[in-house]
């Protein structure tokens, strides 16, 4: 693992970030915002990490998935409330407010998509 800035991955991260902001601000439906937004957040964190680390991409993807699962566990056990931190806006944005088993499935689907594309790129690289 090497700390190394990657502009391409950072630009992908920024693009996904802008898309997530647009979804959060302007889409109030029952599919794109709750499901596609959660799907994209795995890519958001993945490309953010890839912007600064040159390491095994599948291991980074797995680390992002584990991070997302930990966030859901924090929601399930209402850890922020336990430590009287639920009023902290930044922590509420990062940790979210409600647990959803569906989120775990969506995060896993995003992870599997990343793994698929990583293996596809590896097979088609000369």
From TrEMBL:
UniProt keywords, alphabetically: Membrane, Transmembrane, Transmembrane helix
InterPro entries the UniProt entry points to: DUF2809 (IPR021257)
Segments crossing the lipid bilayer: 6-27, 39-55, 61-83, 104-120
Record carries keyword Cell membrane: no
Keyword Membrane found: yes
Domain of life the protein comes from: Bacteria
Pfam assignment, any one: DUF2809
Name of the protein in its database record: DUF2809 domain-containing protein
